[in-house]
Amino acid sequence: MVEFAPLFVPLECRLQTFAVLQLIFSYLALHKENVICYVVFIGLLFTRFWMISILYAIWYLDRDTPWQGGRQSAFIRHWTMWKYLKDYFPVSLVKTAELDPSWNYLAGFHPHGIGVIGAFTNLCMESMGFSSVFPGICSHLMMLNLWLWFPFFRDYAMSVGLVSADKESATHILSRKGGSNLLSIVVGGVQVALNARPGAYKLVLRNRKGFIRLALIHRASLVPIFSFGENDIYDQVESSPGSWLHWFQDRLLKTTRFSILLFYGCGVFQYSFGFMPYCWPITTVVGKPIEVPKTPHPSQEEVDRLHQCYIRELSNLFEAHKLKYNVPKDQHLEFC
């Protein structure tokens, strides 16, 4: 039985739905949007507005910017639309310790979920007042550098604090003198997203140590971040080990670094099926910084030791807050 949405919905709810649809279009349908970006860029050349494409082509010559800290826009980060996005779920930001603005920080964000809503809403937008919660800290979030090559979209992405997810980009931010930077990495990427479903707490972290080495090289304090509710906003088609779907997704991931996520939520005009996320609370908890000694050439033993410390602190953060956010007492993080 299909459950249809009410005919008359408060304006506030309609604005919240619009804000979420905008994010879905901008993030989950990136490949389609980037095709549109190229079509618009080339199409304008054959109209009376050809000068817009020419001027943008000149502007685009600074294509190294996504690897050099990006170009944030306070105007876009403070858009009123982000408030409606936050209220749809709703999303909350919880601080457990101060971040000294004289230091640089490297944060691991967990879990990836589908859409990374907690990371975008809390770290890329001012709907939660990040700059007020952590005064003096400039937040950056890494994303696949592929998406930062496309015209128009790359400027939109950089405006909210997105930067390229590679060593060059991380080095540029973490080596800045004077500190005050928080660089966040969604550890595990698509591989973790394949495990994203309500009630799942499985993280791909055991062999992910590149960000640990970066922290040691640049003496960037490590900050564990766990976003409760991140996995609960969508259902995902079951792909248990041994099934053809699991084999296909795994093979595609190993071959292309991408995979297909068969997820579903609710609809805009009915609540039974669709690609709108469920209205489920998301609470992003920022943990206490882990001090890191400067080690220009860290050994594998030093990396492993800090990695174990990070996993321990992340687990402690989860255990300390899970009961507040509807996680069963006997539920623990699973690392693979």
From TrEMBL:
<dbReference type="InterPro" id="IPR007130">
    <property type="entry name" value="DAGAT"/>
</dbReference>
<keyword id="KW-0444">Lipid biosynthesis</keyword>
<keyword id="KW-0256">Endoplasmic reticulum</keyword>
<dbReference type="GO" id="GO:0006651">
    <property type="term" value="P:diacylglycerol biosynthetic process"/>
</dbReference>
<dbReference type="GO" id="GO:0019432">
    <property type="term" value="P:triglyceride biosynthetic process"/>
</dbReference>
<dbReference type="GO" id="GO:0004144">
    <property type="term" value="F:diacylglycerol O-acyltransferase activity"/>
</dbReference>
<feature type="transmembrane region" description="Helical">
    <location>
        <begin position="130"/>
        <end position="150"/>
    </location>
</feature>
<keyword id="KW-0808">Transferase</keyword>
<dbReference type="GO" id="GO:0003846">
    <property type="term" value="F:2-acylglycerol O-acyltransferase activity"/>
</dbReference>
<feature type="transmembrane region" description="Helical">
    <location>
        <begin position="35"/>
        <end position="59"/>
    </location>
</feature>
<dbReference type="GO" id="GO:0005789">
    <property type="term" value="C:endoplasmic reticulum membrane"/>
</dbReference>
<keyword id="KW-0443">Lipid metabolism</keyword>
<keyword id="KW-0472">Membrane</keyword>
<feature type="transmembrane region" description="Helical">
    <location>
        <begin position="258"/>
        <end position="278"/>
    </location>
</feature>
<comment type="similarity">
    <text>Belongs to the diacylglycerol acyltransferase family.</text>
</comment>
<keyword id="KW-0012">Acyltransferase</keyword>
<dbReference type="Pfam" id="PF03982">
    <property type="entry name" value="DAGAT"/>
</dbReference>
<protein>
    <recommendedName>
        <fullName>Acyltransferase</fullName>
        <ecNumber>2.3.1.-</ecNumber>
    </recommendedName>
</protein>
<feature type="transmembrane region" description="Helical">
    <location>
        <begin position="6"/>
        <end position="28"/>
    </location>
</feature>
<keyword id="KW-1133">Transmembrane helix</keyword>
<keyword id="KW-0812">Transmembrane</keyword>
